[in-house]
Amino acid sequence: MFVDAPCLGIGSWRRNPDGKWRASPNDLAELVERQRAILDSAARLVKPGGRLIYATCSLLREENEAQAEAFLDTHADFTLYPAARACRRRSAAPILDPTARPVTITSPDPASHGTDGFFVAQFERDKPLKNQLLNAEYAKDTRRAQRPSRPLRILRVLCVKAFYFLLRPPP
After folding, report:
1. What SS3 state is found at 36?
2. Shortest CA distance to 44 belongs to which of 3, 86, 103, 85?
3. Which helix (H) or strand (E) holds 78?
4. How is residue 60 annotated by DSSP?
5. pLDDT tens, 31-90?
6. Whole-model pTM above 0.70?
C-alpha cells in the first residue's frame, strides 16, 4: 500500500518557490492530522506480511519522522522495513544513502544534487505467529464442538413441535 500523503511540499520549493508564501502554521497542524488519519485508514488495508509505504515531499520532522514514530506507537503489529534492504533491491541504491537515517530512505541533499527533497518510510505488518493461528483454529473447533450436530438439532425441533402438538387443547 503506497500513501503519498498531502504535505506542505517544502521539498519542492526549489522548483515552486511560491509554495512558501502560501503555507501557514495552521496548515501544518491540519496536514499532520490528515496524514495521521490517512495512515490509520491505509493500515487497515495491509495484509499480514504486506508493506505500507508512507511518502511526502516535505523535509519537516513533524510530517516525516514524527509521523512514522507516532504510527509505530499506535500500531503494534507494524515494524519498520529496513531502508538498507529496500535499497539493495532497487536500481536507485547508489543515489540513496541508507546509512544516513536507519528508519527511512531520503533523497540526497537537495541543494547539492539538484533534486527535490522527499521522505519515505516503509512499514511491514507482522505475520501472525504460528501459535496465534493454532489458537484461532482451536477456538473455532471448540465452538463447533459445543454446537450440536445437525441431526440432533433437527430431532430437538421435532420434539418441541410434538410437545406443543400434544399440549394443544382439543378442538
Report:
1. helix
2. 3
3. strand 78-80
4. -
5. 999 999 999 999 999 999 899 999 898 888 899 889 999 999 999 999 888 776 666 655
6. no
Q: What is the DSSP string of 89-137?
A: TSTTTTTS-TTT-SSEEEPSPHHHHT----EEEEEEEPPPPHHHHHHHH
Residues ≥6 apart with Cβ < 8 Å to 127: 48, 49
Provide the CATH topology of domain 2-125. Rossmann fold (3.40.50)
Written as nine digits, the cell of 77 is: 503489529
Residue type, 44: R
- Provide CB contacts within 8 A for 141, sequence distance 6+: none
List the catalytic residues.
57
Distance (Å, whole) CA 66 – CA 70: 6
Q: Provide the 3-class DSSP secondary structure of residue 160.
A: helix
